[in-house]
Design brief:
The structure holds two protein chains of two kinds. Chain A is mainly alpha-helical. Chain A has one domain: Cytochrome C Oxidase, Chain A. Chain A has helices at 13-18, 28-33, 37-65, 76-111, 119-127, 129-138, 157-160, 163-192, 205-236, 250-284, 291-304, 320-332, 334-348, 357-380, 382-388, 392-422, 428-454, 469-498, 514-517, and strands spanning 4-5, 533-534. In chain A, strands 1-2 form a two-stranded antiparallel ribbon. The longest helix of chain A has 36 residues, at 76-111. Chain B is mostly helical. Helices cover 78% and strands 0% of the residues of chain B. The chains are: A mainly alpha, B mainly alpha.
C-alpha cells in the first residue's frame, strides 16, 4: 500500500474551509448535468439502493408465495415474471451500479486524480440507467406480463412471449452500453490519471480489482449484446438462430449467454474483493498480507472466468470430455480464490483487531462467501451437478455468493466510507444491529435452501410438494427479517447524511489510502487542487 | 469555486488514445461476433 506526501499546498482543513462558501450548483440541475465523480457516484449508489428495494420487494413476494404449498398470492405466470425480473434487477440494477458508484467515488481519490477521465461520458453512463430501469419494471404492465424465462433469457420461452421481451432486450442493450462506457472511463482513468509516484503496484486493491473488472466488462458485454441482438432478430426478422422450428439451436444461446454470464459473476464479486481488501487491513491495523499475490490472484480469477461457462449447462448433453474440462477448470478457480481467503485471514492474524460495523460485514463476507465458494465446488462436480441442477441448492449457492458476498461487501464499504463521504459518523449501535439482523436473516433465509435442494425441490416453481413445507416457511421468515432490516440501513444512511458526530479526517486509524491520509471529511467538491505526490 | 487540477495535455492525449483502443475492442468483438453468426 502506498504512502503519500503533498508536494504543494493541497487540500488541508484550512484550505478546504476557505472554499466552503463555494458549493456545487443547487437544485435538480446539479444532478442532471453534473460531471463531478462524487455526485455521479452518489447517484449510482442511490439508484442501486432503489433497485435493491424493488428487487427485494419481488423477492419477498416470491417468498410469501412459497410460505406454504399450493397457490396463495400470485398466478404461476406472474411468479415466473417475478423470479426473472428479480434476477435482472438485482444483477444489472442493484449490484453492478452499486460497485460503479463505489468506483466513481473512490477511484479518482485513491489514485490522486481530480476526476474521471471523461466526466461527461460518466454523466451519460449514469443517466442511461433510468430508461433501462423503466423499461424493465414497465414490462410488468404490458399485455402478457414481464419476461418469464428466468434472468438467463433462455429460448424458446423468450422467443414466444410478448412485447415485454422486446422491452427487456432493449433494457439489456442500454445497460450494457452504460457498463461499457463506465468501464472505458475507469480503465482510462486508472491507466492515465494516476498521481506522480502512484505506480500500478502501489494502487489500493480496490482500484486493482476495478481495473480488472472493467476489462472483463469490455470483453463480455459485447457478447451479451450479440446474444440479445440474435434473440431480437429471431423474434422479428425471420432468423432462426435459437428457434428449433426453423433449424436453430436453443443450446447455442446457452453457450453464448454463459460465456458472458460466468465472467459476469466475477464482475459482481471482484470489486467486493477490493472493498474487503481495504477494510480488513484497516481494522486489523496491519498491511494487507500478500499484496502482489492478491493482484495476481484477481487476474487469474478473471482469466479463468472465460473458460468455465460450461459448468452452468452440464445437463444439456455436452460430450464427456467437455464436461470434464469444465469441471476441472471450475475447480481450478478455487486456487486463486483460496489465495485471497488465506491472505485476508493472514492479514487478521495477530492484528490489533476491532469489530466496528464495516469489519463485521467484512468478516461476515469472509465466512459466508467461503460457504458459497464451497457449495460452488460441490456444483462443479459434474455428476453431482446433474442431480442438483435447477434445484434450490443452486439458489442457495448463488445467493451465498451474491448476497453475503457482493451485497455484504457493499454494506461494509458504505459503512467504511460513509464518514468520509458525509463528514458524519453513523450510529455504531444501529450499524451493528443492522449487521446482526442481516446476518441472522440471511442465513435463516438461505441456508435451509441447501436442504430443500438436496431433497429435490426445483427452483422457479410457485408450488411444491408437502414435504418441503417446513424449510420453506423458515426460509420465508428469514427473508422477511433480512428484507425489513434493510429499512434500518436506509434510516442509518439518511440520519448520517443529515447529521451526527463529526467524522475525523482519518476515521479509521489503520486506513492508509489517499482519501484517508490526504483529504478532509467530508471530501471537498473538487478533490485535489494539486496532485499529491506518492512516495 | 476552487478548481481541481487538470490533466496535462500528455495525459489527455493518452486518455483519448486508451479510450479509442478500448472502444475499438468493444466494437470489434461485437462486429466479429455478428458477422460470424449472420454469415453462417
Amino acid at each position: 500500500m502506498s504512502t503519500a506526501t503533498h508536494a504543494h499546498d493541497t487540500h488541508g482543513h484550512d484550505h478546504a474551509h476557505a472554499h466552503d462558501h463555494h458549493g456545487p450548483p443547487a437544485g435538480f440541475s446539479r444532478w442532471m448535468y453534473t460531471t463531478n465523480h462524487k455526485d455521479i457516484g452518489t447517484m449510482y449508489l442511490w439508484f442501486s439502493f432503489a433497485m435493491f428495494l424493488m428487487g427485494g420487494s419481488m423477492a419477498l413476494l416470491i417468498r410469501a408465495e412459497l410460505f406454504q404449498p399450493g397457490l396463495q398470492l400470485v398466478e404461476p405466470q406472474f411468479f415466473n415474471s417475478l423470479t426473472t425480473v428479480h434476477g435482472l434487477v438485482m444483477v444489472f440494477g442493484a449490484i453492478m451500479p452499486a460497485f460503479v458508484g463505489f468506483a466513481n467515488w473512490l477511484v479518482p481519490m485513491q489514485i490522486g486524480a481530480a476526476d474521471m477521465a471523461f466526466p461527461r461520458m460518466n454523466n451519460w453512463s449514469f443517466w442511461l440507467l433510468i430508461p433501462a430501469a423503466l423499461l424493465l419494471v414497465g414490462s410488468f404492465f404490458v399485455p402478457g406480463g414481464a419476461a418469464a424465462s428466468g434472468w438467463t433469457l433462455y429460448p424458446p420461452l423468450i422467443i414466444q412471449q410478448g412485447m415485454s421481451i422486446d422491452m427487456t432486450i432493449l433494457a439489456v442493450h442500454i445497460l450494457g452500453a452504460s457498463s461499457i462506457m463506465g468501464s472505458i472511463n475507469i480503465i482510462t482513468t486508472i491507466l492515465n490519471l494516476r498521481a506522480p509516484g502512484m505506480t500500478l503496484m502501489k494502487m489500493p486493491l480496490f482500484v486493482w480489482t476495478w481495473l480488472i473488472t472493467a476489462y472483463l466488462l469490455i470483453a463480455v458485454m459485447p457478447v451479451l449484446a450479440g446474444a440479445v441482438t440474435m434473440l431480437l432478430t429471431d423474434r422479428h426478422f425471420g432468423t432462426s438462430f435459437f428457434n428449433a422450428a426453423g433449424g436453430g439451436d436453443p443450446t447455442m444461446f446457452m453457450h453464448i449467454f454463459w460465456f458472458f454470464g460466468h465472467p459476469e459473476v466475477y464482475i459482481m464479486i471482484l470489486p467486493a474483493f477490493g472493498i474487503v481488501s481495504q477494510i480488513i487491513p484497516a481494522f486489523a491495523r496491519k498491511p494487507l498480507f500478500g499484496y502482489a499475490s492478491m493482484v495476481y490472484a484477481t487476474s487469474s480469477i478473471a482469466i479463468l472466468s472465460f473458460i468455465v461457462w460450461g459448468h452452468h449447462m452440464f445437463t444439456v448433453g455436452m460430450p464427456a470430455a467437455g464436461n470434464l474440462f469444465f469441471m476441472y477448470a471450475t475447480m481450478l478457480i478455487a486456487v486463486p480464490t483460496g489465495v485471497k481467503i488465506f491472505n485476508w485471514i493472514a492479514t487478521m492474524w495477530k492484528g490489533s483487531m476491532t469489530f466496528e460495523t464495516p469489519m463485521l460485514f467484512a468478516v461476515g463476507f469472509l465466512c459466508l462467501f467461503t460457504i458459497g465458494g464451497f457449495s460452488g465446488l460441490v456444483l462443479a462436480i459434474t455428476p453431482v451437478d446433474i442431480t442438483l441442477h435447477n434445484t434450490y441448492y443452486v439458489v442457495a449457492h448463488f445467493h451465498y455468493v451474491l448476497v453475503s458476498g457482493a451485497l455484504f461487501a457493499i454494506m461494509a464499504g458504505i459503512y467504511f466510507w460513509l464518514p468520509k463521504w458525509t463528514g458524519h459518523m453513523y450510529s455504531e449501535g444501529l450499524g451493528k444491529l443492522h449487521f446482526w439482523l442481516s446476518m441472522i436473516g440471511f442465513n435463516v433465509a438461505f441456508f435451509p435452501q441447501h436442504f430443500l435442494g438436496l431433497a429435490g425441490m426445483p427452483r422457479r416453481i410457485p408450488d411444491y410438494a408437502l414435504q418441503f413445507t417446513e424449510w420453506n416457511q423458515i426460509s420465508t421468515v428469514g427473508a422477511f427479517i433480512f428484507g425489513f432490516s434493510q429499512l434500518l440501513f436506509l434510516y442509518i444512511v439518511i440520519s448520517t447524511i443529515r447529521g451526527g458526530a463529526k467524522a475525523p479526517d482519518r476515521t479509521w486509524e489503520g486506513a492508509d489510502s489517499l482519501e484517508w491520509t490526504h483529504l478532509p471529511s467530508p471530501v471537498p467538491y473538487h478533490t485535489f487542487e494539486t496532485a499529491p505526490v506518492v512516495k | 469555486m476552487a478548481e481541481p487540477h487538470k490533466p496535462t495535455p500528455q495525459q489527455r492525449r493518452n486518455a483519448l488514445l486508451s479510450a479509442a483502443v478500448l472502444a475499438a475492442m468493444v466494437l470489434g468483438i461485437y462486429a466479429v461476433f455478428m458477422l460470424k453468426v449472420f454469415s453462417a
